[in-house]
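Dear U.,

For the methods section draft, I wanted the exact inputs and outputs in one place so we can describe them consistently. I've listed the two proteins in the order they'll appear in the manuscript figures. Please don't edit the token lines directly; just add comments below if something needs changing.

First protein:
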Amino acid sequence: MMWPATVTPWAWAVAAVIIAFLELPVPGSYLIWIACAAGLTALAGFVIGWSLSAQLTFFVVACIGTFIAGYFVYRQLDQRGRETEPVNRRDINLVGASATATEAFANGQGRVRLGDSLWLAECAEDLAAGTPVVVRAVKGTTLIVARRAHAA
């Protein structure tokens, strides 16, 4: 089989469109950056008449460049997403909240009342019922609590 000496820029353009459409059902994958590299190769092909090896070399370099650009784009989007209020992550807002032990803790386990809800809780020490506690972490549906320091 004989390889062509060059690939028409239209082939690169069509490949870019097809690859971009493949990104639609799986958003967030890196196919869009490959599609951008194919598009850049098509644009360069319209301007410069390259051999197949030159086109493939340019495509590989363009892929690397668009992947690096994509890294920074996704990193920026990730940082912007962390600055907003967490959706469906009530546990993040519970850390630091004050609660009260509703029963005596045995072997470091018991229940606490936080707001209008009862929660399973774990503590490094056994606590008596009515002991004020503060939430230090959340593990699944269990609050990790510690005895609240008395205000001076």
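Second protein (the one for the lower panel):
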Amino acid sequence: MHPSAIESAFALFLRVVAGYCLLFGILYWVRLIGVYDGPLWRFDLMPIHWQVAAVTLSVFFPFAAIGLWMLSSWGPVIWFICAATEVVMYAGFPNLFGSRPLIVVSHIVVALIYAAFRIVLHLKRRRAAQ
């Protein structure tokens, strides 16, 4: 049985998000290894709160990318942990991490699109079962 158009669109959506997760992971690694050109340009120069956040997200984002790309059930869970962490960092503690409203909004938009896909797929499966 072939996947429906909505299932194919959902798979494409997850893979696009996987690409962004991989990019975010690489950006955190760039910061950790000292290639980043900014005030916190190396791990040993970062304050402790940035060290914890950067190390955590540099591991979790690529891990989320793998799960999303493979369309595994745990991929969105790991992405949610990454997104929630960045939302808390940039919206909850802007005095420590700076304000990055574009990142916060993008995570919220991705979460809403994901929820809409899941609802539509659930309703479709429920309708098919009846």
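Candidate sentences for the figure legend, describing the second protein: The chain is about 80% helix and 0% strand. Residues 38 and 96 are 15 Å apart (CA to CA).

Thanks,
Y.
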